[in-house]
Amino acid sequence: MDDWLLLMRQSVTKPEELLKRFPDLDMDGLKWVTKYFPMRINPYYLSLIQSVGDPVFRQAVPDPQEMMDFTGVPDPLHEEEQSPTPGLIHRYPDRCLLWTTNICPVYCRFCTRKRFVGKTGIPRRQILAAAEYIARKPQIRDVILSGGDPLCLSDDQLEWILKQMRAIPHVEIIRIGSRVPVTLPQRVTPKLAKMLRKYHPLYVNTHFNHPQELSPQAREALELLADAGIPLGNQTVLLRGINDDPATLLELFRGLVRFRVRPYYLYQADLVEGTEHFRTEVGKGVEIMASLQGITSGLCLPKFIVDAPGGGGKIPLAPKYLQRVTENGLILRTYQGKLTFYPENKKDRPAADSRNYQMTLEFEDVDASDAF
Ligand SMILES: *Cc1c(COP(=O)(O)O)cnc(C)c1O
Ligand code: SF4
Q1: Which ligand places an atom closest to the C-alpha of 234?
Q2: How many Å apart are CA 145 and CA 178, to the nearest integer?
Q3: Which domains does the chain have, with CATH numbers?
Q4: In this structure, which ligand is nearest to the CA of 181?
Q5: Residue scoring higher pLDDT (288 or 115)
Q6: Distances (CA, A) of 250 to 82, 239, 256, 261, 301
Q7: Which of the residues are catalytic?
């Protein structure tokens, strides 16, 4: 049997098993949480834990606070409503997201699909129905394989799905969203990399949240993928008390770039039932991005994103560098906080157009009551 399958089988899924490693944990609390939200921690991810309550521990070990969340809802992004066939989410015009499995090597406590991971399975006919839908929509040029973790599938199962997608002529690129390089890097074998490279252009977006996850094994997995010509991106979730400070994120983003992974998005935590204790203030993310801008390369800096509740899509929030628009130019703020004047060249802009132009640069006052 492959090493990774063995590691999957040896995962801790029951409170009793976890208490063997951490005897001081509260058994009743663990039992309460795992009745609603499953636990799985495989021996590799468990080995990354250095002490109780550290950043890896808190991402993986159930916490009774999950049961005391009265803010979050099961499906804040209304994925189920934007789903033309089960397990396919078509929110944006030119791309869609497909659930391939409900299994993951670790059930992350902050997961946006907490309602679903480790619970309902995904039959093949569901994938076939999604493929039929995509085939009927020529505007879809980009399919994201998600879940659950698509790399929990066997090579053959995954290849079968990739074949379904590649059989559709207008699907230009395929993306795989996977936390496997973080949670079970042993899964990335030379055989897997060899199979994946047949389906180019293929991208992999992974999900590192903390420098403690940047292990030698993770590096090896990422190298195998990068050497197979797969461009690698990373999506981090901003998590309270885990990575919500500039120093931690700077170390993470620089480490990722060293491992040939481009930081893509930093997400504000979604309003998911059972995860409220991880959520930061939105301003925190903007502040952190402002403090990293300029002091490190743009290559290290992701976009900060709030996913609109109700399925409105991703909203990038950037620090405010534009201070004012004047008759002759713009007053901008540098990364060091100094003001600078940037003269405009409006020579070939007709007078009537100038007003519209100013509006694209200025904040529009919107009536906040429209939002509800
Ligand atoms: C995030 C997401 C995508 C991909 O968005 P990109 O900005 O292209 O990375 C597509 N579909 C859904 C439903 C998503 O949540
Ligand atoms: S690997 Fe991804 S889908 Fe699976 S539990 Fe973690 S965050 Fe959720």
Answers
A1: 1
A2: 9
A3: 80-317 (3.20.20.70), 322-371 (no CATH)
A4: 2
A5: 288
A6: 35, 15, 10, 14, 9
A7: 91-92, 95, 104, 108, 111, 113, 270, 307, 314
Q: How far apart (Å, rounded) are the C-alpha atoms in residues 310 and 79?
A: 8
- Is the model's pLDDT at 364 over the cut of 70? no
The residue whose CB lies within 8 Å of the most ligand 2 atoms, and thus the one to mutate among 59, 149, 151, 213, is 149
Q: Report whether 212 contacts 50 (CB < 8 A).
A: yes
- CA 60 / ligand 2 centre spacing (Å): 10
Say what the pTM is: 0.94
Q: Does position 280 have pLDDT exceeding 80, yes or no?
A: yes
Residue 97 in contact with ligand 1 by CB distance below 6 A: yes
Ligand 1 center–CA 2 separation, angstroms:
32
For the record, the structure tokens of 2 come out as 């492959």
Tokens standing for 155? 């090579």
pLDDT digits (tens, 9 = 90+) for 298-325: 999 999 999 999 999 999 999 999 999 9
